[in-house]
Task: inverse folding
């Protein structure tokens, strides 16, 4: 991962775990945060694939969490880390957390190993799923994931989400 991206990854993962909190104790919170960091790491590596891309976002800023807070009804705050939240990275991470097939395609699209590993993102165990029940729930993630899903789908050359088939 490019040296400028860890702040964006950490802040975006922090936002995700606050917007979609774990219901358990310290271990569950750590498992959920690990999954959020892995998803945000893959999303950031896809969004900012070159050193120049990473340097530019580091210089111009990531945009912050205000729109995401408004969209999800999350309790915003004035903590400095919130300015490093990247809306596109959060949206793409939400897509990856809610859609295992898309997560696999995203990790496969990266050149080299996935940032910080990807086992919990790609193959969550029972404890991972339990710890991140809200963080991985596609319906709850939809408002954030839908913001930039089309761009991610185009980048990965995968079709968008299937429309449910309604009985006639």
Result:
């Amino acid at each position: 991962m490019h040296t400028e991206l860890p702040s964006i990854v950490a802040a975006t993962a922090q936002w995700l775990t606050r917007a979609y909190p774990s219901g358990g104790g310290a271990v569950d919170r750590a498992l959920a945060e690990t999954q959020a960091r892995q998803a945000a790491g893959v999303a950031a590596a896809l969004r900012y694939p070159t050193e120049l891309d990473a340097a530019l976002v580091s210089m111009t800023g990531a945009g912050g969490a205000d729109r995401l807070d408004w969209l999800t009804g999350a309790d915003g705050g004035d903590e400095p880390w919130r300015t490093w939240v990247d809306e596109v990275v959060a949206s793409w991470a939400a897509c990856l957390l809610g859609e295992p097939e898309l997560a696999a395609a995203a990790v496969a699209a990266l050149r080299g190993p996935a940032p910080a590993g990807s086992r919990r993102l790609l193959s969550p165990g029972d404890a991972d799923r339990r710890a991140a029940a809200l963080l991985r729930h596609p319906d709850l993630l939809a408002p954030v994931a839908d913001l930039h899903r089309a761009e991610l789908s185009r980048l990965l050359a995968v079709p968008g989400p299937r429309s449910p088939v309604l009985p006639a």
